Amino acid sequence: TEHLIAGDPLYIVDIRQEYLTATLSKFNDVYRRRVRPYLIKQGEGDKFADLSDLPQNQFGFVLCWDNFDYLSRDIIQQYLQEVFKLLRPGGIFMFSYTNCELELAALKVGYHTAAYCSSTWLLKVLRDIGYELINLTDCTSTDSDSTVHPISWAEVRKPGTLSTTKTSQAQGLIR
Fold it and tell me: I want to staple 108 with a disulfide (CB 3.0 to 4.6 A). Which of 4, 19, 34, 114 is the partner?
């Protein structure tokens, strides 16, 4: 999160209040007042990902890292639809996921340390929602103990041209 502080406003979103509190505690009081924490409402019935309280059609960039890796495909699809509504035309969404078309990722699912997803399924869902694909990336990282971990992520865009009317950061309190 500390690498995203140039975002103003910076929304941090989670399903658990303790995670929001822990993230906010990393910042000083001055910056903490600029951050907008948001607790995701757990929807009713089959609706799990409800982001409707966030500003719709307003975000230029949304990052979701190390979350979709543990969610079922139906919940991932709900989040993809909700984020699409949040993005401004031309806005970008970047997220990680478990690409089980890779052997190491499929093993994680077999060991119950990740949820099943695939780039083939993901591409179809993204296209059906209306996203434009920027990039799909698969790579690996290695821990200090030489354990290799697969990492997959997607970068997608809501069609349109990203523009803004904001000329500078807010400098004062408006009453």
Answer: 114
DSSP H/E element including 82: helix 73-86
How are beta strands 148-157 and 132-142 bridged, if at all?
antiparallel
pTM here is 0.86
Q: What are phi and psi for residue 172, nearest 5 degrees? A: -155, 170
User: Per-residue pLDDT tens for 30-86?
Assistant: 888 888 999 987 766 556 778 988 999 999 999 999 999 999 999 999 999 999 999
What type of residue is 147? T
Q: Cα angle at 104 between 103 and 105, to 5 degrees? A: 90
Q: Calculate the alpha carbon distances from 79 to 22, 48, 51, 76, 93 in Å.
A: 23, 8, 8, 5, 11
